[in-house]
Amino acid sequence: MLEINNLHAELESDAEVTILKGLTLSIKPGEVHAIMGPNGSGKSTLSYVLSGKDGYSVTAGSAMLEGVDLLEMEPEERAAAGLFLAFQYPVEIPGVGNMTFLRTAVNAQRKARGEEELSAGDFLKEVRAKAKDLQIDADMLKRPVNVGFSGGEKKRNEILQMAMLEPKMCILDETDSGLDVDAMKLVADGVNALRSENRSFLVITHYQRLLDHIKPDFVHILADGKIIKSGGPELALQVENNGYADLLAGAA
Amino acid sequence: MALAKLKQDATLARLAGITLPDGATWATAARSDALARLSAMGLPTRRDEYWRYTDPASLIVADAPPAALFDNGEAPLFAGVDRIALVFVDGVFDAAQSDDLAGAGIEIHRLADVAQRDIHWAKDLYGTLESRGQHPVERPLAALNTAVASDGIVIRATGPVQKPVHLVYLHQSETSDVTLHNLVRIEAGASLTLLETGPGAARLSTCLEVDIADGGQFHHIRAQGSDHERRAVTHCFAQLGAESVFKSFTLTFNGVLTRNECVIDMRGDDAVAHVAGACVGDGGDFHHDDTVFVTHDALRGESRQVFKKVLRNGAVGVFQGKILVKQGAQKTDGYQISQSLLLDEDSQFLAKPELEIYADDVACSHGSTTGAIDETALFYLRSRGVPMEAARNLLTLSFLAEALAEIEDQALAAELQTRLEGWLARRA
């Protein structure tokens, strides 16, 4: 599904700052991979470089989604190709209704893929059903995108977008940040409901606790822009118990 | 002194060619008074503080600069609204295209007719609010309007008027130079919605005097059309009685020069006045100026100014807004926000927000910002698959939303929103 090979990236504003230094990762259809790592290891940068945010330049390596070069595409093209990034800090957009936003996004992607746009009726039916699963009420759907939403509501709204857009490759950037236990459970249930053999996940997190709810197939430790260790779910537990120090020392 | 003399000479030279329209004794007196006011204060120049950001020269020159006609193929605004449409073609009233000057709870006349007769409420109002609105800031172009306007619409609402009155200003001559003066009197407890659309002329001056009695309500929604080259100076003078409501919203597209002045005098207790505007301008010859002056002279008044401007390709936006709270106007709640969204580095926004407060128990706030499209929000939308241009447009509409939210009638607001979307799509 996603093949990242020897990826190098630096800040556009400061070429001295290299953030990714040869990252290689292969995710097969249906797999859930987790990336953990200390602050500043490049976790969020990886999500931004993959989804096409301005401000980073890729100096070497590649990232392919189902054989298509992601790095050559605009962010909206990557989305239409099936990539989705759940933001650590979802953006508030006053004056644009959540529903309008969702419908615009869904239909823009369908159009980009040469599919027919969803009718207003079909869209409404689908969005209502999916919102209900995530305990998103009608009021939240009507309100401007993320404006005045609590931390939990914002993250649930991200998952609703994911559910509506039906991506193939989902990246969750510290989705657990700012969530209490109940909210995390709700979000995790939403993600788990979307797991399928054709859809893969890359879960970026600081803490093991999210991985109690979204069980990964593989766990990778990112440090200084590279993956220094990969393993199964037990690796996350090891981090939880011992911190990163041992792993970092081992890699040095 | 030398400067004042020069200004006076220029004013006299400009006014020498003007003959006042015919009318009854009262009308002639009102026009002569206005001319005298104007002669005394002189026509504005860029040297005047109030015209520092906007050059009035082309609004004053004897021959109006021509403006090419422009048709973007859109249907006329508010055509589907059940309304009383009154049509002016280049300032000339067109009875054939207009509805009857009648409606339930309402009296409607043409100024041209009223000026020949003795209708006490119209004669008491004509030039009165304009004249009072000359202090503390002079508004010479409003006095000029009062002096020379030969036509306009004169409305008196005596009860709740269901159908909006729609003044349609059509522009069909490239050289038309039009002055219209409208009067609105809202009697106690009455209500009226007034719509105004169109560029109206190559150069258009409108003056609206609105007198709202206790408990009256006046809603004003205006769209200054999408002609590229037209010039307009508009004045609105409103006087608010106790517990009355005044709400005015203006949408402006294009035009080389627009100066909209709104002067609100809150004289009765517990009155509410909202004035809002959204403007979108494209190109180095676009210049839009909103100048607002709200005076609180009564208890518990609520005023709100919300102005948003989207500017690109060298367009210029100006906002001069003032809240004056007089001594004794306790519990005043005044709010003012002016914001611009600059879509490139060539465009410019000039803002002069002012508060002047002489009462000690009031809540007044103002803010002014200028900024570019939020890159984070843009990326957020694009990451969801919304293409660049559509994402920029969505964020532009999002920026304007607070101003459009000032329109109470949802259907009318939706129609203006559609026009904005159309403008953005055409300009993509």
Condensed summary:
With 252 residues, chain A is an alpha/beta fold. Chain A has helices at 43-51, 75-81, 98-112, 120-133, 138-142, 151-165, 181-194, 209-213, 234-242, 245-251; strands at residues 2-11, 18-27, 32-36, 56-65, 68-69, 83-86, 93-97, 144-145, 169-173, 200-205, 218-223, 226-231.
Shape of chain B: globular
Q: Output the strand order for the largest sheet of chain B.
A: 2-1-6-8-10-12-14-16-18-20
Tell me the strand percentage band of chain A: 25-35%
How large is the share of residues in beta strands of chain B?
Answer: 35-45%
CATH architecture of chain A: 3-Layer(aba) Sandwich
Give the structural class of chain B: alpha/beta
Work out the radius of gyration of chain A: 18 Å
CATH class of chain A: Alpha Beta
Helix content of chain A: 25-40%
Distance between the termini of chain A: 31 Å
Number of helices of chain A: 10
The tally of structural domains of chain A comes to 1
The tally of beta strands of chain B, per DSSP, is 20
Widest sheet, order of strands of chain A: 6-9-10-3-11-12
If you consult CATH, what is the topology of chain A?
Answer: Rossmann fold
Q: What is the count of DSSP helices of chain B, taking H or I runs of 4+ residues? A: 10
Order of helices and strands of chain A: EEEHEEHEEHHHEHEHEHEEHH
Fraction of residues of chain B in helices? 10-25%
Break the fold down into its secondary structure elements and pairings:
The complex is a heterodimer of chains A (252) and B (428).
Chain A: E1 2-11, E2 18-27, E3 32-36, H1 43-51, E4 56-65, E5 68-69, H2 75-81, E6 83-86, E7 93-97, H3 98-112, H4 120-133, H5 138-142, E8 144-145, H6 151-165, E9 169-173, H7 181-194, E10 200-205, H8 209-213, E11 218-223, E12 226-231, H9 234-242, H10 245-251
Parallel strand pairs in A: 3-10, 3-11, 6-9, 9-10
Antiparallel strand pairs in A: 1-2, 1-4, 4-5, 7-8, 11-12
Helix pairs in contact in A: 2-3, 4-6, 6-7
Chain B: H1 2-16, H2 25-41, H3 57-60, E1 84-89, E2 92-93, E3 102-103, E4 106-110, H4 111-114, H5 120-125, H6 128-132, H7 140-148, E5 153-157, E6 165-170, E7 177-186, E8 191-197, E9 203-212, E10 217-224, E11 231-240, E12 245-253, E13 257-266, E14 272-282, E15 287-296, E16 302-312, E17 316-325, E18 333-342, E19 348-357, E20 363-371, H8 375-383, H9 388-404, H10 410-426
Parallel strand pairs in B: 1-6, 5-7, 6-8, 7-9, 8-10, 9-11, 10-12, 11-13, 12-14, 13-15, 14-16, 15-17, 16-18, 17-19, 18-20
Antiparallel strand pairs in B: 1-2, 3-4, 4-5
